[in-house]
Design a protein that fits this description.
Elements lengths: L1 E14 L13 E10 L2 E7 H7 E11 L4 E4 L1 E3 L11 H8 L4 H6 L4 H10 L2 H17 L2 E7 L6 H17 L3 E9 L10 H18 L5 E6 L6 H13 L3 E6 L7 H8 L3 E4 L5 H10 L2 E4 L1 H7 L6 H6 L4 E3 L13 H12 L3 H8 L1 H6 L17 E4 L6 H4 L6 E6 L2 E4 L2
Parallel strand pairs: 1-4, 1-5, 6-7, 7-8, 8-9, 9-10, 10-11, 11-12, 12-13
Antiparallel strand pairs: 1-2, 2-3, 5-14, 14-15, 15-16
The protein binds N-(iminomethyl)-L-glutamic acid and fe (iii) ion (FE).
The site of fe (iii) ion has 5 residues, from loops.
């Protein structure tokens, strides 16, 4: 008999996203299922008819009746710019009038306007802003996310952003995994001196960030007019020497060779990839680099979507994430991201669900902890008010999440 502190009983479907379990191929669907947790971790998953014989609720334990709803793994949002001050709603309007993202950036808007606002903000202010966003992300099913620095662009301001991210991880139910993205843009004071700024990132920022254990990952915006492939390589390899895994903005607008670089250096993930070459996609498959696709950004900017099917057909593992940020994607609803992936990128619905769960976990190197439901992993799950999991992307634009469990505790509704 297994003892549990939490039993989520009588789900119409438990979608484990674990191919070793249940039916439904890689989705591992347990029909009429129950999930049990002890402490933070899952201890039992199976048909509800067997639960009473195999699982006992510990004194003081909690039973959550899923009441014929659908249980999914908590979503893993593996690419966000969660922490920033200031908003850029005027740019959004300008874009509707025909201005491009690059034109807005060239006119002093874009990332650098968020940098100005973020430099003025205190750690406390950044934490408050981040907390309100995390509350909404959690309510929409995100139980794990990544968060980048990159709106500070000085040693002190990058550290300030990462301090805010560390506090958010500690204080909020959502687990927040930090990425150092000091090479998000060239700051005004280094305009025309990109190599000198790369030197600052490598020689001053990285040692401080790594020394204080403020980041797990390192990211670069590798793009025409921002950081070249050679500059990105230099930063990412320096990050690796400090123990940071590479996951970076690659081939978003221009086919620069970011996908190829990701394969060359064994990056955890290459992100965006709207303009990735066929050779780059093949090399990512060979090297086992996760492709993190961000349809919310293409949608918000009015751009064509990344060629998801080419990645899937080449055997590349795909993650879908939000890219939440004030300029190119002011949204973090991964249910809606799934709908975009199915309708606009022609991803099969099951691939879309895998991509916001176990795919995102792979993009963060956390596939043994989160992203699927299996005994031993964290009990991060969603009870969704739908008759079958397919309704999550299908009936779009509303929140299907009724209850969120994080690390074995009901955390939403609070
Ligand atoms: O992922 N591409 C660079 N960074 C962000 C945009 C950040 C911003 O505009 O503030 C992105 O789209
Ligand atoms: Fe981004």
């Amino acid at each position: 008999m297994i003892e549990a502190d939490l039993v989520v009983s009588d789900a119409a479907q438990v979608v484990t996203c674990d191919a070793a379990r249940g039916a439904g191929g890689r989705l591992g669907v347990v029909e009429q299922g129950t999930v049990a947790a002890a402490g933070e971790r899952i201890v039992w998953i199976g048909p509800s008819t067997r639960a009473d014989a195999e699982v006992r609720l510990a004194p003081g334990g909690r039973r959550l009746d899923a009441g014929g709803r659908v249980v999914l793994p908590g979503f893993v949002d593996s690419h966000t710019h969660l922490v920033f001050a200031g908003i850029r709603e005027k740019e959004y309007a300008l874009r509707a009038g025909g201005a491009t993202y690059q034109q807005i950036a060239a006119a002093g808007g874009g990332i650098l306007s968020t940098v100005r606002a973020t430099r003025r903000a205190s750690v406390d202010e950044l934490v408050e802003l981040g907390r309100a966003r995390l509350d909404l992300m959690l309510a929409h099913g995100t139980t794990t996310c990544e968060a980048k620095s990159g709106y500070g662009l000085t040693v002190a301001d990058e550290l300030k952003m990462l301090e805010a991210i560390r506090r958010l991880d500690k204080e909020h139910a959502v687990d927040v995994h930090p990425t150092f993205c000091g090479a998000h843009e060239v700051p005004e004071e280094y305009r025309g001196r990109t190599d000198a700024y790369v030197g600052l990132v490598v020689e001053a920022m990285l040692p401080e960030v790594a020394g204080r254990r403020l980041a797990r990952y390192v990211d670069v915006f590798c793009e025409d007019g921002v950081f070249s492939v050679d500059q990105a390589r230099r930063i990412l390899l320096a990050g690796a020497r400090h123990g940071l895994r590479a996951k970076f903005h690659a081939d978003e607008f221009t086919p620069l060779g970011g996908a190829e670089l990701a394969a060359e250096i064994g990056a955890l993930s290459a992100d965006h990839l709207l303009a990735a070459s066929d050779a780059g996609i093949r090399r990512m498959a060979e090297a086992g680099v996760t492709a993190t696709l961000l349809p919310g950004t293409a949608f918000f900017l009015g751009l064509p979507f990344a060629p998801a099917r080419r990645f899937l057909e080449a055997g590349v593992r795909v993650a879908l994430a939000s890219d939440f940020n004030p300029g190119s994607c002011m949204g973090f609803n991964l249910q809606l991201v799934m709908t975009m992936a199915v309708s606009q990128m022609r991803m099969p619905p099951e691939e879309a669900l895998l991509a916001v769960t176990i795919g995102g976990a792979h993009g963060l190197g956390l596939e043994h902890e989160v992203g699927s439901l299996r005994p031993g992993k964290l009990c991060d799950l969603l009870v969704c008010d739908v008759p079958t999991w397919e309704h999550v992307p299908y009936l779009y634009g509303i929140n299907h999440v009724r209850t969120v469990v994080k690390r074995g505790r009901v955390v939403w509704p609070a």
